[in-house]
Amino acid sequence: NDGYRLWLQYAPIEKSDLAEGYKQQLQQIYLSNTSATMQVIQDELDLALGKMLALSPRYSSSNNSSTAPGLIIASPSQRPSLNEMITSEEYAALGEEGYLLRTISNGKKTQILITGNTDIALLYGTYELLRKLQTHSSLEKINLQSSPKTAIRVLNHWDNPDRTVERGYAGASIWDWHRLPDYIHPQYLDYARANASIGINGTVLTNVNANAQVLTPYFLRKVAKLAEVFRPYGIKVYLTARFSAPMELGGLSTADPTQPEVQEWWDNKVNEIYEYIPDFGGFLVKADSEGQPGPQNYDRSQAQGANMLAQALKAHQGIVMWRAFVYTNETPDDRAKQAYNEFKPLDGDFDDNVIVQVKNGAIDFQPREPFHPMFGAMPQTPLMMEFQITQEYLGQGTHLVYLAPMYEEVLDTDTYAEGPGTTVAGIIEGRQSGSLLTGMAGVSNIGTDRNWTGHLFGQANWYAFGKLAWDPSLSSEEIAEEWSQMTFTNDPSSTETITRIMMLSHEAAVNYMTPLGLHHIMGWSHHYGPGPWVTDKHRDDWTSTYYHQADRLGIGFDRTVKGSNALGQYAPEIQKLYGNPATCPEKYLLWFHHLPWEYVMPSGRSLWEEIALHYQKGVDQSREMLYAWQSLSTEIDPARYHQVESFLRIQEKEAIWWKDACLLYFQQFSQRPFPKEVEKPEHSLEYYQNYEPKFVPGI
Ligand code: BDP
């Protein structure tokens, strides 16, 4: 088992009574095979039931068949009698993508009903039923209705036309542009199945650092083919739009959004795209950021830039996802404040089909960040969440770090924007803006590696992202349990162990990388491994010293009123709570405060000691993860067991590397000994500074 089948393993169900019950229930299925999506449903059932139960179900779409089906998969238009069972209110509440899964009885026989308003809803419901089988759940008395809480649930591929993947750690891009549109790699279909199984309904095929070439007919033909493959699975394609494309492709002398010829160029380009792809989703745009062109080049606002594209897309129901990751080179006092300062004054200025895509935190996908202050600050603008699934700052393709607890932490945080209870999740669900345009984006961790994500547990991050995009209130622990059952085994004790490893992993990584609110102290450029000494680069805000500010007196970035006052961008309740080191959650302490080394922590220990002990704890936790996994050596198939085991050994080694490098570096300033619990560094600081890799493959 090389992991290719992801969470859709469909392992044979060995408990005979359970399997027998499922078989009885599922041998006769009502399904009217009238569309490509219904065919997908039937194919998936054939595959899954064949593998799990050695069952070839019989399908019928006759409403008066003599044997009553044990499973009915139908919308009311396919089976009008459903209207007698399910009220029109219930159907209305499901919306376009929601499904209802219910155990019903027709007098003599128990039946399972999967219904919804569209074929895609039925597909989602089918995957839910298969999940129940995969987790060996009872089919008696099911009664669940589920509708997505966000509308746009997209993967952002940072994939380039030459098949390199920016910050990709799992091989090359899965888009084989060269052979498209004539060759459909089977992986595209499995990609679509995997995404549909977790409710992902969109994919941005190309890198945010965009290449205008993807908008040329040469590429559009290929994109159209992918769109065709994904359509039956409810997945729309989107592209990144390079702001200067009118100059690069159209030969114009400007890309100024206020110039009619620029608007006209985009209008024509968009019309052309819709000729190739009638249900094209729209554009994702990175502008005025890290060298990307944008409206600032012409002294125009982000809203002017976004609205120009929005206008071109409007007639086709396309949308613009405009990124808030805007920061200029000369960030004067604090990069964390830039996006808010740029966007807040524009609240209400964006067209209806624009949604602003905001990273979870204000810096840049760090191992842990407090929520981005734009959440809650833009009541008249739809905001979508951008999480990074690829682990750029969290051990890349090598460390086991389950990201859902981090996503959950941000989603559950109260912004207090409109009084208590205005959580980040509520904002991205549109409860503040009232807009139906809502969404969540995840920067993809997928590549051509056989197991898709490089590290097998990277699959869990893709899975959890989809689940949380559908319902941001889900528990990361329950998602871990479910994923582990579907991916590895249903054995309760193994599931418990795997879930424990996963739930420990993010905190462990934060401890050995950036404890207590430290951030952006990773290796230069490739971002792998420790680099707290990174300084003197052409941009201050790309160095480590800019962020940790360690000196003889203390450490941390003062974002209170006495410092950059980035804290002033949050609601007064947050300002009060985080503004005082005594009440600021410890996990954000050095994010918001510069404190002396001898500062007394709630534990009674000094800040220095506490930092040192956190690094040690990260190392201890990485060992705990390794040993826990080793206890599963006879439970997991050898190939997957050994890959994860080797990676966990690397993780332990590198946790030590982080601890030693960071502590030796900070010790120069603190001038204090290590607490006795901390293992002695193996080498000198100089060694670590020279050891720093100059290049890490996979970028
Ligand atoms: C940074 C990455 C860079 C991306 C950028 C972004 O290092 O490669 O282009 O984010 O999100 O974290 O645009």
Automatic annotation (TrEMBL):
Pfam families: Glyco_hydro_67C, Glyco_hydro_67M, Glyco_hydro_67N. One of its GO terms (cellular component) is extracellular region. InterPro entries: A-glucoronidase_C_sf, GH, Glyco_hydro_67_aGlcAse, Glyco_hydro_67_aGlcAse_N, Glyco_hydro_67_C, Glyco_hydro_67_cat, Hex-like_dom2. Its EC number is 3.2.1.131. Keywords: Carbohydrate metabolism, Glycosidase, Hydrolase, Polysaccharide degradation, Xylan degradation. PANTHER family: ALPHA-GLUCURONIDASE A. Belongs to the glycosyl hydrolase 67 family. Homodimer. This is Xylan alpha-1,2-glucuronidase. The lineage of its organism: Bacteria, Pseudomonadati, Bacteroidota, Cytophagia, Cytophagales. The gene is aguA.
